[in-house]
Structures are given as structure tokens and as C-alpha cells.
Specification:
five-stranded parallel sheet; TIM Barrel; alpha/beta; 11 helices
């Protein structure tokens, strides 16, 4: 278990993705806002973002360099690990994919703007022996990057797993999701003093069972749910890390930025060091 720190973490809150046209309709962006202008306007309200695009398309150094230049040097990017390394595994050429990923995020590393690399594994990635071996080799291949691992399958909820992540100084992602029996539980375990990482997926039980992404992430958190998360998980995590990253993925109808802003206020009310927008 990571020991408590004398100074609480600096906490950066944001959303999973930012370029949603429906956020214009919902009023988060002004009418007529072009996609190319969304990141700069997003950064006026949040100090960090979790990039979804790197999960679906291999990151390109020139593209990420352009993105980082649109915002303040203090702004931070968390980048999803490409699905070729999380969902389509193991493939014979995964080591080449890992090398290309490292090359793609290099501008963020060099500028000091890479918050974390998020390795978010699907429900099918259970704790079988081939998956354990692959994960070990993958973490070796990505060593040196600030890594955070999100497990979807509850078989990974094991003290041995947590101890190995701590040995490697890899953050275990704290996840909020519907209370389905097969899902990884909403634990708050610090496995590195460098940072903690939390993701809010929403609790739309019917949506998760349907597999429809439009329903899955259609959820608005109540004040009580946010306050309980802050008190029971974020406050303890903040005592064991120098920095914390929290992202809301309930993007439907711009619920993610609304809930993220509300959560920033909740955390500030708990006396935590909430980082303002990097403008």
C-alpha cells in the first residue's frame, strides 16, 4: 500500500473526449463552433482532457504536436492506448504497435504535457494466463511512460495484481460504472505515489446491458453520488499521490462536462487542491 503523503494531490478534472458536435446543441459550445476550435474552448473550462482518438487511431506525432500548441503549456493530455494493444490482443506485431504508439505521443512527453497513458481493457480481457503474460510484456514495452491500467473484468480484483502494479509504479484506475456482477468493482487503491486516475462511466444499467453506446453513456450523476465518491474514494486517494486525474465519460447530451464542473466544486468543498483551467 502506498503510504500517505504530507501534502494532498493536485487534482485535474476533465472529460473523456471534447470534440462532440452534440455539445454544441446542448450549449457547452457556442452555436457555430467548428470542431477545429473545440479544444481551445474546452481548455478555458478544464485543465486536462482524456483523448479518445488515440484509442481508435494510432497517434501521430505531428497531430498531437498541433493539438498541444492550441492550449496552455500547463494543460495536460491523457491518451488512451490504441485498441491494437488493448482490444485486439495478442497480435503477432503488437510490439511494433507499441513502438509506433510511443513515437506518436512523443511530443506530449517532450513538452511535459502527457498526464498518463490509459490502457483500458475490455470485459473479454480476463485474468487468464495468456492475458497475464501479455500484460506483463506490454507494461515492459511501455516502461518509462506514466501508465494507468483500467480493468473491466472483475477477475483482476486481486491483491497480487495490485502489488504487481505497485512494484511497477503503474496506476490502477478507479472506475465508476453500473453494479454488474462481472465488472471490476469501484475500488480506490493507490499503486503509485506519482498519480491516481479515476473514470466515471455513468450508471445506466439498461444501457450497459444493451451494448448501445448512446444509451451506455447516457447518465447524469446526482449530487449524492458525487459527494459519496469524493468522500469515500477521492479524498483517500489524494492522500497517497502527488497528482490526480479524473475524467467523466458520460458524454451524451454534454452531461460529462456538466458533471465534471459540479465535481470540481464538490472536491473543492472537501478542501482538496483542484486545479483551475490552464488558461
Amino acid at each position: 500500500m502506498v503510504a500517505e503523503s504530507n501534502s494532498p494531490a493536485r487534482i485535474l478534472v476533465g472529460t473523456g473526449g471534447y470534440a462532440y458536435t452534440e455539445w454544441v446543441t446542448a450549449g457547452f459550445y457556442a452555436e457555430g463552433t467548428p470542431t477545429a476550435a473545440m479544444l481551445e474552448r474546452y481548455a478555458r473550462r478544464f485543465p486536462a482532457v482524456e483523448l479518445n482518438t488515440t484509442g481508435y487511431r494510432m497517434p501521430r506525432a505531428d497531430s498531437l504536436d498541433r493539438q498541444r500548441r492550441q492550449v496552455s503549456p500547463e494543460f495536460r493530455f491523457a491518451a488512451k492506448l490504441n485498441r491494437a494493444l488493448t482490444h485486439e490482443v495478442p497480435t503477432p506485431r503488437w510490439r511494433d504497435a507499441a513502438a509506433r504508439y510511443r513515437e506518436g505521443v512523443a511530443p506530449l512527453v517532450q513538452a511535459g504535457q502527457l498526464a498518463a497513458v490509459l490502457a483500458a481493457f475490455p470485459l473479454t480481457f480476463d485474468r487468464s494466463e495468456p492475458h497475464r503474460r501479455y500484460l506483463s510484456e506490454l507494461l515492459d514495452a511501455l516502461a518509462g511512460l506514466p501508465l494507468a491500467v483500467e480493468f473491466r473484468h472483475r477477475s483482476w480484483a486481486s491483491d497480487r495484481v495490485f502489488a504487481e502494479l505497485e512494484r511497477r509504479q503503474v496506476a490502477l484506475v478507479a472506475v465508476d460504472a453500473p453494479p454488474l456482477p462481472e465488472l471490476f468493482p469501484p475500488l480506490a487503491i493507490a499503486t503509485t505515489p506519482a498519480f491516481f486516475y479515476a473514470r466515471f462511466h455513468g450508471r445506466n444499467l439498461r444501457g450497459w446491458r444493451s451494448g448501445n453506446l448512446g444509451l451506455q453513456f447516457d447518465y447524469r450523476y446526482s449530487d449524492d453520488e458525487l459527494q459519496r465518491w469524493a468522500a469515500e474514494r477521492i479524498v483517500p486517494l489524494s492522500r497517497r499521490a502527488r497528482c490526480g486525474f479524473i475524467f467523466f465519460g458520460n458524454h451524451v447530451r454534454a452531461q460529462a462536462p456538466a458533471d465534471a464542473r459540479r465535481f470540481m466544486a464538490v472536491l473543492a468543498g472537501c478542501g482538496l487542491d483542484v486545479v483551475p483551467p490552464a488558461v
